[in-house]
Amino acid sequence: MLTLRRAGTSFFWLLLAALVLISAGLYNGFPLVTSDTGTYLNSAIHFDVPDDRPLTYGLWTAATGLRKSLWLVIFAQGLLLAALLWRTTAVFAPRLQHPAGRLALVATVTWLTGVAWYCSQLMPDIFTAVGLLALALLLLSRPAWPERLALLAVLLLAAIMHSSNLLTLLLTVLAVGVVGWWKHLFERGVLHRPTWLLTLAVALAGWIVLPALHAGFGGGFTLSRASSAFLMARLSESGVLEKFLADNCGPGNQYRLCEFRDQLPNDAITFMWDASSPLNRTGGWSANQPEYQRILRQIALSPRYYPLLISETVQATLRQLTHIGHGDGLTPFRENTNPYWKVGEYAPYELKEYMSSLQNRDQLDFTTLTERSYRAQLLALLVLGLGLLGPARSRVAPALVGFVVVCGLGIVANALVTGGLANVLDRLQGRVAWLLPWAALLLLAQHVPLPARWLGSLAGSARA
């Protein structure tokens, strides 16, 4: 009976944390949508594999929303994220035992960083951070097998939720392994080699599981049928494609793109989506796939382009690391837009809520939140710098140091993958940037001095 009561109490606090994490959606009056939401909802309704993104989030939406309510989708996201944040607090800041203190920590990171604006979106963006949190817990907490299997499942789910997550999480696992070898963390017991290998295997398995999932739903054994177009758009934005066409377009050239060598768009988004772009004027993704793949292979095998590719990738990564603003893509999507049509098809009784949301009345302002987020990032860097490099460094538990390292490597990996291979956008970096302030809050919660009578009172309340 006591165990059941404790389980009920724990779920109550997790429920409150989940509500905090979807507070942006509650404030908006409806789950937040972007221009991509319609595609995900379409795959949730018809189980069609989209050309330009994975089916996985559509399946998540179908399973969690039950074809009844889109509120259930973001609530499931909030509950999953709350459970991971709760567990990271228990592992890396064990002094904070009382659930009210843990809830306050979740509320603080939400207020400082606006993570709720990502958790409340009908988008897979929040799963990048979900995957990194699961990764940190797997590598650093030595969980029992039931919890380990659950975390491995969450890691795999997060990896296949978006093609960028596959590479981001794999790079993070590999980078942790390199740091572990360099700093002798395996020998010192901070990292467990068999667990790292198991985590690496799951991260690699995602590269097979996702194409197999697409094949099972009739979409072919592929990560994305539009991947070559996305890469070409990025090469166009970086100037590499322009240089390639200048080198290879001449009498008897075999590339249709040569006709547009002086009309390449300035950015990848225009290349992909503008009706007058070279891509769309020559038949779209499917029609151009053979030529684009041929160009990509030729660039990959030509060392003359490597300096420019490396320079552009480094520059894009550094730019992406600073793009943590809010509101990217959260514009109104009213009648005659894809999100409007698909919300009406998935949950017709929620269409009035959707139309009356603050987003669709153009009443959302992210200026203050963006400024606060930038300050939170700077304060987090200051706190982590003083805590991990200052005189108190020896008192910080190795596991907490490891958590900061995993989060930091994951944030950089996300910037490298999204900035280097896709677009430099606030949304793509903001989805994980909040992990840095979260790590700083855990450090403060574990090490800021508190009066002994407070600690005794809190510990007694937690046991009760």
TrEMBL record:
The chain crosses the membrane at residues 12-30, 69-88, 100-120, 126-142, 149-182, 194-217, 376-394, 400-425, 432-450. Keywords: Membrane, Transmembrane, Transmembrane helix. It comes from the Bacteria. This is DUF2723 domain-containing protein. It comes from Hymenobacter terrestris.
